[in-house]
Each structure stands twice: as structure tokens, then as C-alpha cells.
Design brief:
- 51% of the residues lie in helices and 16% in strands.
- By secondary structure, it is α+β, with helices and mostly antiparallel strands.
- A hairpin with a 2-residue loop joins strand 9 (269-270) and strand 10.
- The radius of gyration is 21 Å and the shape is globular.
- Helix 8 runs antiparallel to helix 9.
- The two termini are 25 Å apart.
- The chain has helices spanning 7-24, 28-34, 39-47, 66-79, 81-101, 104-115, 231-267, 279-307, 313-338, 349-356, 366-377; strands at residues 121-124, 140-144, 147-158, 165-171, 181-187, 193-198, 209-220, 224-225, 269-270, 273-274.
- The protein folds into three domains: 7-120, Acyl-CoA dehydrogenase/oxidase, N-terminal domain (Butyryl-Coa Dehydrogenase, subunit A, domain 1, Orthogonal Bundle), CATH 1.10.540.10; 122-229, Butyryl-CoA Dehydrogenase, subunit A, domain 2, CATH 2.40.110; 233-377, Butyryl-CoA Dehydrogenase, subunit A, domain 3 (Up-down Bundle).
- It has eleven helices and ten strands.
- A four-stranded mixed beta sheet has the order 1-4-5-8. Strands 2-3-7-6 form a four-stranded antiparallel beta sheet, with helices on one face.
- The chain binds flavin-adenine dinucleotide.
């Protein structure tokens, strides 16, 4: 495995650095404070080809592999976790699900619009009482002539209000039957599909998280993704890929916190010398650097395997579990290195600290990653 960055990755990293300076950094604390989801930024990311990174060019996407995708999310994560999270959810979950399991007609209809960001995508698996244990979901779909009728609530959905199109997994069979759930594409504006409560979050505040409510929502049978009964199995496969994107997001946050810490440790003086000269601070930076390197290698490994169409259940869980915990550890240490200034909104580490925690929760908590890994290694 050669993990050196290719030409496209260098190009994407440079492009995002410039884009971040112009369109994200000047406004991101304002969005964070007000919990504004800046749709216009995602439209611009669409113009740059970053809202359909993995979508084949024939469907209007950039046609890149996971290496380029990881670079894009990591670079965005170094700037603003919220923008990186929303970009990742749009690409991996909604778009990724339609790309992997949609028929030709569905792909032609939705992928070009998602890749250009004309449509913002959402993906609904989680419900109020079923997060980690998604198989017990209560949202039901009942067959009625040429339609399926959806009833229930999905919660914690990224773009639950703004999303123009959602992939929704609902129960079509028996409780606890892994073949008792089906995935549907539901367009905003479909009668009975409403947005619910928007969450007021600790971090990732510019990434919209909200409920999606289905009240006798009639969805034509042509909107079923793949086979009836395959929705849960499909969702688990989508999460295998999605977890690589959360690992990349975690890596971006960890790197952002580390870069800021290195700079500060060289500039800030106490006792007549830069604080980086104190072994206590140098050791923190050494731990951060080592753990970031390890997280990056695990993430690159999972990306490499995924691009080469190998099963990545264990490797994506390794990457997501480790990188997300590293993001939290690095941003905690970054706040400590900044001292009192780290506890204010005048420096970036406070935001990395708040944003990082989502990474150990979304798309499967750290505990669930350990369950997945244990299951794989005990097979
Ligand atoms: C900002 C944000 C965005 C999100 N976006 C989306 C989205 O777009 N679409 C979507 O479908 N979902 C989304 N989610 C939901 C997310 O995937 C869930 O929050 C996550 O899977 C955990 O579920 P839960 O919150 O219900 O926690 P719970 O499952 O209730 O877990 C609570 C605690 O119990 C632990 N636990 C649970 N089961 C076990 C077990 N068997 N063994 C050991 N420990 C266990 C967990 O690790 C955790 O520590 C989002 C969440 C957030 C916060």
C-alpha cells in the first residue's frame, strides 16, 4: 500500500485551503454561535465537485476514490468540523446509498443533482428509542397499491430540515428480522414528510441536525432502493464506508488542533521561554503527533481497501474508533496547551474541542465500533 498523496489529493488539499480562507474561516464562528447551516457554502462546494466526490463522472460527479475523499474531508475538518460533517453525510450516506443500491433510473434522477448540490441529501436510520440498536426501529412502511405508506419519526438526522431528498430506512417486516426493513428515497415536499425539532448541540453547530417526521407519507414503489427487505443490510454496508469519512473528519479535527498547538507552543512564552521548551508541553505534542500518524495510517488503510472493493467492516471500525478518540484527546490537550486562552472563542481550539466529541458518537459510538471489531476478530 502506497499512502503518499497523489496529484489529485494535492490539488484537492490546495483547493480546500483557499476555499476555507475565502468562504469558511471568516464566518464560521458566527454560524457556530447562531447554529446557522450555511447552505450557500455547500452549493459552492458542489461547484468544486466536492458534493459528489465518489460519484462517477457519467452521473455528474468527480469520479474519485476514497483516498481523494479522505483528503477532502480531512482538509475541511482542519478548518471547520461542521462543514466537513455535513459534506461527509451528504456524500457517504444519502448519495452513497443511492449510488450503491439505486437502479439506473434512480441514479440518473438523483445523483447529478446531489453531486452538484442542487439537492442536499439526508439519511435517516436513527430513531428516538433506537440509536445503536437500529434493528428495533419503529418507523413503519405499509404497502398500499402502488405506494408504501410511511409513519414514524427519525431523529438526529443531518439535514433533516434542509435536505431536499432523504434516504429513509423503515420497517416493512417483523421486529428483529434483519430482512424486515426497506430503504426508500423520499423527496422534500412529499405530503406527510415534515421536518421536526432542530437539535441545539454542544458542537458541530453549523451542521444541521433535526427530526424527520412521517405522517401517512405515501411514497411510490418506484422509490424503493434495491429489494424490499434489504434496507438494514444496505444501511450496514453504507456505514462501513461512512465510518471512513468520520475517521477522516476526526483526523482533520486532530490535525487542526495539533497545528494550532505547535504554533502556540512556539509563540507563547512563560518563565522567559516558549512553552514548547517545557517537557510537559513537548510530550503532549509528541503524543498528539504519534497518535495522529497512527490514525492517519488506519484511515488510509481503510480507504485503500474500500477503493479496491474489499470488505472494510473491521478496518473502517478500526479507523473510526481510533481516529475519533484521537480527535477528542488531541483537542483536549490543545485546550490545555493554550491555557486560559484555549477556553475562549478567540482561539480555534475551543471549537475543535466541542466538535471532536461528535466523532465518537455519530455513525456508531466507540463502544459499537468495539463490538463490530470484536465480532470480526472472533469470527
Ligand atoms: C450530530 C449528529 C448527527 C447525526 N446524524 C445522523 C444522520 O444523519 N442519520 C442517522 O440516521 N443518524 C444520525 N445520528 C445518530 C447517531 O448515529 C446516533 O446518535 C448514534 O448511533 C448513537 O445512538 P444513540 O444516540 O441513540 O445512543 P444509544 O444507542 O442510546 O447509546 C447510549 C450509550 O450506550 C452505549 N451502548 C449502546 N448499546 C451498547 C452495547 N450494545 N454495548 C455497549 N454500549 C452500548 C453507547 O455506546 C452510548 O455510549 C447523528 C447523531 C448526531 C449527534
Amino acid at each position: 500500500m502506497d499512502f503518499s498523496l497523489n496529484e489529485n489529493q494535492h490539488m484537492i488539499a490546495d483547493m480546500i485551503k483557499k476555499f476555507g480562507d475565502e468562504h469558511i474561516r471568516p464566518k464560521m464562528m458566527e454560524w457556530d454561535e447562531a447554529q446557522t447551516f450555511p447552505v450557500e457554502v455547500f452549493k459552492k462546494l458542489g461547484d468544486l465537485g466536492l458534493m459528489g466526490v465518489l460519484v462517477p463522472t457519467e452521473y455528474g460527479g468527480s469520479g474519485f476514490g476514497y483516498a481523494e475523499y479522505v483528503t477532502a474531508i480531512t482538509e475541511l475538518g482542519k478548518i471547520c468540523g461542521s462543514i466537513a460533517l455535513s459534506m461527509a453525510a451528504h456524500n457517504s450516506l444519502c448519495t452513497g446509498h443511492i449510488m450503491a443500491f439505486g437502479n439506473e433510473e434512480q441514479k440518473k434522477k438523483y445523483l447529478p443533482k446531489l453531486a452538484s448540490a442542487e439537492f442536499i441529501g439526508a439519511w435517516g436510520l436513527t430513531e428516538p428509542n433506537t440509536g445503536s440498536d437500529a434493528m428495533r426501529m419503529k418507523c413503519v412502511a405499509k404497502e398500499d397499491g402502488d405506494y408504501w405508506v410511511l409513519n414514524g419519526t427519525k431523529c438526529w438526522i443531518t439535514h433533516g430540515i434542509t435536505g431536499d431528498v432523504a434516504v429513509v430506512i423503515a420497517r416493512t417486516g417483523e421486529l428483529l428480522d434483519s430482512h424486515g426493513m426497506t430503504a426508500f428515497i423520499v423527496e422534500r415536499g412529499t405530503p406527510g414528510f415534515n421536518a421536526g425539532k432542530k437539535e441545539n448541540k454542544l458542537g458541530m453547530r453549523a451542521s444541521e441536525t433535526a427530526e424527520m417526521i412521517f405522517d401517512n407519507c405515501r411514497v411510490p414503489k418506484s422509490q424503493v432502493l434495491g429489494n424490499v427487505g434489504d434496507g438494514f443490510i444496505q444501511a450496514m454496508k453504507i456505514l462501513d464506508g461512512g465510518r471512513i469519512s468520520i475517521a477522516a473528519l476526526s483526523l482533520g479535527i486532530a490535525k487542526g488542533a495539533y497545528d494550532a498547538s505547535i504554533k502556540y507552543a512556539k509563540e507563547r512564552e512563560q518563565f522567559g521561554q516558549p512553552i514548547g521548551n517545557f517537557q510537559a508541553i513537548g510530550f503532549k505534542l509528541a503524543d498528539m503527533a504519534t497518535e495522529i500518524e497512527a490514525a492517519e495510517l488506519l484511515t488510509f488503510q481503510a480507504a485503500y481497501l474500500k477503493t479496491n472493493h474489499k470488505k472494510v467492516t473491521k478496518e473502517s471500525a478500526f479507523a473510526k474508533y481510533y481516529a475519533s478518540e484521537v480527535a477528542v484527546r488531541c483537542s483536549v490537550e490543545a485546550v490545555q496547551i493554550f491555557g486560559g486562552y484555549g477556553y475562549t472563542k478567540d482561539f480555534p481550539v475551543e471549537k475543535f474541542y466541542r466538535d471532536s466529541k461528535l466523532c465518537t458518537i455519530g455513525e456508531g459510538t466507540s463502544e459499537i465500533q468495539k463490538l463490530v471489531i470484536a465480532r470480526e476478530i472472533l469470527k
